[in-house]
Amino acid sequence: MSYTFLQNYWWCLIALLGGLLVFLMFVQGANLHLVNRSLSDLQKRMVVNSTGRKWELAFTTLVTFGGAFFASFPLFYSTSFGGAYWVWMLLLITFVFQAVSYEFLHKKENLLGVKGFRTALVANGFLAPLIVGTAVGTFFTGSDFTVNKTAIMDMAAPVISTWGSSWRGLEALAQPHAVLLGLTLVGLTTILGAQYLINNIEDADLENKMRKTIKIAAVPFLVCFLAWAGILLCREGFAVDAAGTVSMEKFKYLHNLLQMPVVLGMLLVGVVLVLASIWTGGFTSSRKAIWAGGAGTVPVVMSVFFLAGFNGTAYYPSYADLQSSLTLANSSSSQFTLLVMSCVSLLIPFVLAYIVYAWRQMDKKMITEAEMKDSQMKY
Q1: Nearest alpha carbon to residue 352 among 307, 296, 301, 294
Q2: Strands, E assignment, the chain
Q3: Is residue 103 over pLDDT 80?
Q4: Residues 76, 32: contact at Cβ < 8 Å?
Q5: Are 239 and 323 in contact, with CB atoms under 8 Å apart?
Q6: pLDDT tens figures, 329-349
């Protein structure tokens, strides 16, 4: 296997993990519905019990996503996770509060009370997709860092990557285009969360409320997505030539889309499936919208990663120093490391099969009002 093939292979795996992560963040989207005042206390408890069975899947995928980046593209890991650490720390804190909330939500005499821990779940439901989406958005807008690989020889301070802003990644919130992708992700996970609750909870009143929510949430989601996509296709991009030199190219991402018909096809199919899931969840009586939503989300997210990293594009650009921008070629692990990890990655289908099996076991029986009253195993 050639070095280039292995680099591209691992970028595809990271894109797949990113797509799965966004889909599994329906947990965050479902918890965001706890702010809905029309839901009764019992219905909110059913929501928490429903997401409580799945939240570990999203968190595990997030950790795997970060681990895959560390192993395959360590320079990105050290640059972003080490430089923009306030972003990743904030994301981690929201997930810690999520885990604590599930554990102590209905414990007697807990410190924050039921409302306090539900608020923590809502905060995670909004902040997690916003942070992840904005972070991915910087793949197209750029970040404030410089890379000097020769600094590794400096025994006094062997620091390769240096972050320019004292905000440590939070400056991305001042980039409207990046934030637009974050808001798009919030809208998408809100819709996926409602679709999941329709599929997982047996309650006619809750189902009707979720279908209404899908109709409402679809409008800002589509507005944000279309605005983000329109700006992306019209903006300058970070092109990389055969020598590895980075330069600005007008309509770079539009060129990428047109020059990679497979990616264009993935994007179009994914968008159609997401739109179909919105129609199915909001305007029909079907409970299966979540599956069309998930099947559409994964290829859309993967196509976004492909636009950022393939076809001679710097996937993690630096606006402080263009030549410090990270590409698949200059930021990956060694060929031997990628080859060994590629062999290990052959186990991924078995892991996915186990997740499907565990999911089916957890969803054999839908959550009902009677279960909330009778079961002792609930949040």
Answers
A1: 294
A2: 145-147, 161-163, 201-202, 237-240, 246-249, 367-368
A3: yes
A4: no
A5: no
A6: 999 999 999 999 999 888 888
- Give the residue from 25, 39, 24, 368 showing the smallest Cα distance to 201: 368
The confidence score (pLDDT) of residue 377 equals: 53
- Looking at residue 310, its pLDDT comes to 97
Total structural domains in the chain? Answer: 1
By the 10 Å C-beta count (0-12 exposed, 13-18 middle, 19+ buried), 108 is classed as exposed
pLDDT over 60 at 279, yes or no: yes
The pLDDT confidence band at residue 9, using thresholds 50, 70 and 90, is very high
The reply to whether 280 falls in a domain is no
For 27-40, write each residue's pLDDT tens digit.
999 999 999 999 99
Q: Is 317 helix (H, G, I), strand (E, B) or coil?
A: coil
Q: How many CB atoms lie within 10 A of CB 247?
A: 15
Give the Cα-Cα-Cα angle 74, 80, 82 (nearest 5 degrees): 85
Domain assignment of residue 74, given as a range: 3-210+316-374
Residue at 379 is within a domain: no
Among candidate residues 122, 10, 18, 3, the one with its CA nearest the CA of residue 61: 18
Separation of alpha carbons 65 and 116, rounded Å = 30
Inter-CA distances, 32 with 124, 190, 229, 287, Å: 8, 7, 25, 20
> Taking the model in full, what pTM does it have?
0.94
In-domain check, residue 271: no
Flag whether 96 is in a domain: yes
Nearest to 194 by CA among 33, 43, 34, 37: 33
pLDDT of residue 154: 60
